[in-house]
Fold this sequence. Notes:
This protein is α/β, with parallel strands linked by helices and 442 residues long. The protein has 2 domains: 4-289, Purple Acid Phosphatase, chain A, domain 2 (4-Layer Sandwich), CATH 3.60.21; 300-437, no CATH class. It is built from 13 helices and 16 strands. It has helices spanning 24-30, 40-53, 72-87, 121-127, 173-188, 219-228, 300-319, 325-340, 343-349, 363-374, 386-397, 399-405, 418-426; strands at 4-8, 21-22, 59-63, 91-95, 106-109, 112-115, 136-140, 145-151, 154-159, 192-197, 233-236, 243-248, 254-259, 269-277, 280-287, 437-440. The chain has a 7-stranded mixed sheet with strand order 7-8-9-10-11-13-12, covered by helices on one side. Helix 5 (173-188) links the parallel strand 9 (154-159) and strand 10 (192-197). The longest helix is centred in the last third of the chain and has 20 residues, at 300-319. The two termini are 16 Å apart.
Amino acid sequence: MKPFDFYLVTDTHYFEPTLGCSGEAYENYMKNEMYCLAESSKIVKAVFDRLIEDRETDTVIIPGDLSKDGEKQSHISFIKELRRLQQAGKKVFVITAGHDYNDNPGGYVGSEKVPVEGTTLDELYELYYDFGYADALSVDRQTLSYVAEVSEGVRMIAFNCDSDRSTKGSIDERLQTWAKEQIDKAKQDGCFIFAINHYPIIPSVPVFDLIGDAHVKHWRQVASFLADNGVNLALTGHMHIQSINEFYSEKGNKFVDICTSVLVGSPGRYRKITIKDESTVDVKTLLVPEFDWDLGGRSAEQYFDDRATWAAVNRINRALKGGSGFVGFAKKRATKIFNNKTLGQVGRLVCVKAPAEIKDKKFTTFAGEMARDIFKGDQPYVKGTPEYEAVEKVLSRFGFVLKKLAPKLAQDGVVPDLKQMVLDTIGNSKGFSDNDATVSLK
């Protein structure tokens, strides 16, 4: 096979601004939303302009969540942007996902969320026919999955695991049967084959293994199925995070999942990928460029980061609201601690001494920054940093609780080491980058 270059863009969450994205209702909604809504169309245009400038790379792949919430007009406007790519000579392959069909989406006007025309799953096939399905060698109409030859000797199996016609987030036995036929056919024809899927197949960070909606169901079985049948690479999205992860099946076959962040919010990244041969993939991460918006003198990255940090703190505060009796009392107490205490003060409450370098940092700032940075990949809080030391001390303090809890959180029969799981989530200890890397598939 010849080397194959392409751009990977995920989770565009395009929203048509004329549907309404201002006023009290919009501001209330955005308090807890970590990606940008009003700005999304400008961000997509700016990134697509960059893709068009590259006259040598002719393929763009987008694995799902194309629209904000399935608004028909958002799809129509986004497809105009895809047409711009095609008119510039790009081949565009997409799959749809859960945010792309909805019977009751809305816009934000004044103090109200107003209903707008939605999109059904059946309509997505026709809407996006020219962006994958027209070139498909096989289509599974039940899920809208397909296989296409994206370059000479290179095929892509595009799983749509986020369909209401099957268990959401599942590449089930029926879909695997269809997939094996397509994989076998590709091998018979002498083609390299890789996969795209909206949901990560391998959890992007270890704690996501405990969150059902953060990866495909029974991911170890799915990863093993693909690896053992000769599909060693998947490109995914959904979790708005930068990650590259490896998994080995019981037969010793390697599987690699490259998950890419949301385009229209922090960390605001997309990828240029080169499949050099059947065993080597080069990954380069690119930042969203400046776009047509008042960024208040900030870079696009800082603009995204500020929103993500603010929204993360708001989400934590929202989670601490409600309840009655002891639960209500505990939540109120936790809210005061979260918003008013420094790490040093919180440490004293749990009999742990915070490192001197960060003891005066507000707990809210610490939590918001850590939440934001986990999604950027290459998580910086590794052994030797004060943040790692603080988290490690707290986890050790409550080690007896974690050991009792671990068996109840077992996934597919695997009992987690909760302490190490958290530490490996806040700090990248894999030995390679989540952003720029040369990945071996063998």
